[in-house]
From TrEMBL:
<keyword id="KW-0812">Transmembrane</keyword>
<comment type="similarity">
    <text>Belongs to the G-protein coupled receptor 1 family.</text>
</comment>
<feature type="domain" description="G-protein coupled receptors family 1 profile">
    <location>
        <begin position="40"/>
        <end position="262"/>
    </location>
</feature>
<feature type="transmembrane region" description="Helical">
    <location>
        <begin position="145"/>
        <end position="165"/>
    </location>
</feature>
<protein>
    <recommendedName>
        <fullName>G-protein coupled receptors family 1 profile domain-containing protein</fullName>
    </recommendedName>
</protein>
<feature type="transmembrane region" description="Helical">
    <location>
        <begin position="20"/>
        <end position="45"/>
    </location>
</feature>
<keyword id="KW-0297">G-protein coupled receptor</keyword>
<keyword id="KW-1133">Transmembrane helix</keyword>
<keyword id="KW-0472">Membrane</keyword>
<feature type="transmembrane region" description="Helical">
    <location>
        <begin position="66"/>
        <end position="91"/>
    </location>
</feature>
<keyword id="KW-0807">Transducer</keyword>
<dbReference type="InterPro" id="IPR017452">
    <property type="entry name" value="GPCR_Rhodpsn_7TM"/>
</dbReference>
<dbReference type="GO" id="GO:0004930">
    <property type="term" value="F:G protein-coupled receptor activity"/>
</dbReference>
<dbReference type="InterPro" id="IPR000276">
    <property type="entry name" value="GPCR_Rhodpsn"/>
</dbReference>
<feature type="transmembrane region" description="Helical">
    <location>
        <begin position="198"/>
        <end position="225"/>
    </location>
</feature>
<dbReference type="Pfam" id="PF00001">
    <property type="entry name" value="7tm_1"/>
</dbReference>
<keyword id="KW-0675">Receptor</keyword>
């Protein structure tokens, strides 16, 4: 038989909170990270749009960059303020409702998955364009929208179990002559522990698959970009032609692309 954990009512749980010095330090650190992330991703969106308008960046790359920046922004805006408030400043005196807890975990995980999948779809499209240009042209103009929609749809589906597996759980003691301390936390539910573990395991597998695939595609693109422009052309009788002359601008563009991929 499982025994329930007995928690003494006379314990002051606020003693376990970090002191004000640590709270202030973490608040400054979180604020700097949040501000840097908002500014950086906002600049990314703006620069990508300007480059596309001036013809320096293709529309499909711009769409991927904007989708990636938006998922990063959502991760920052959803996760950091909530964690700073509920986990650092008021861990034992404030509690979220069960519905808001579920929605928070779902949105945060979905946006996190969307970030890594947006990286994967951007890498896949660039891989096809660089390594298989003929297939790239045959895919048509709607491939970018389909890839971005696929990334967000898969992210939502992978995060859906958290709506069931997470919620509020804990204990609220009644102390005499002291304010009630809320020990109800937003966490995974004990009765849904198997579902929660399966969800985390699936997410880990998705991350690993994406990591391996992106590494492979980037390596293949680097190998292709390192070859001279005309090295793959063949003569009339099947004899390989000497490489065509590459301008300094083309060589610089190749080097910049390789650095970006790394």
């Amino acid at each position: 038989m499982s025994e329930e954990l007995e928690i003494p009512d006379d314990k002051d749980w606020s003693e376990l909170e970090p002191n004000y010095g640590i709270k202030i330090f973490l608040t400054i650190l979180y604020s700097l990270i949040l501000l840097t992330g908002i500014v950086g991703n906002s600049v990314t969106i703006r620069v990508a749009q300007v480059l596309k308008r001036n013809g320096y960046l293709q529309k499909n790359v711009t769409d991927h960059m904007v989708s990636l920046a938006c998922s990063d922004l959502l991760v920052l805006l959803i996760g950091m303020p909530v964690e700073l408030y509920s986990a650092i400043w008021f861990p034992f005196t404030s509690g979220s409702g069960n519905v808001s807890c579920k929605i928070y975990n779902f949105l945060f995980e979905a946006c996190s998955y969307a970030t890594i999948l947006n990286v994967a779809t951007l890498s896949f499209e660039r891989y096809i364009a660089i390594c298989h240009p003929f297939q790239y042209k045959a895919l048509g103009g709607r491939r970018t929208s389909a890839l971005i929609a696929f990334a967000w749809l898969v992210s939502i589906l992978v995060a859906l179990p958290l709506l069931i597996a997470t919620g509020t759980e804990g204990y609220i003691p009644n102390l005499q002559n002291t304010p009630a301390q809320n020990l109800t936390f937003c966490t995974n539910l004990r009765e849904r522990w198997v579902m929660y573990r399966v969800s985390i395991f699936v997410a880990f597998i998705v991350y690993m698959i994406v990591l391996v695939c992106v590494a492979f595609m980037c390596w293949a693109m680097i190998l292709v970009l390192q070859k001279p422009l005309g090295s793959m052309d063949a003569g009339v009788n099947g004899v390989q032609r000497p490489p065509k002359h590459e301008s300094q601008k083309v060589k610089t563009a190749r080097k910049q692309t390789i650095i970006f991929l790394v």
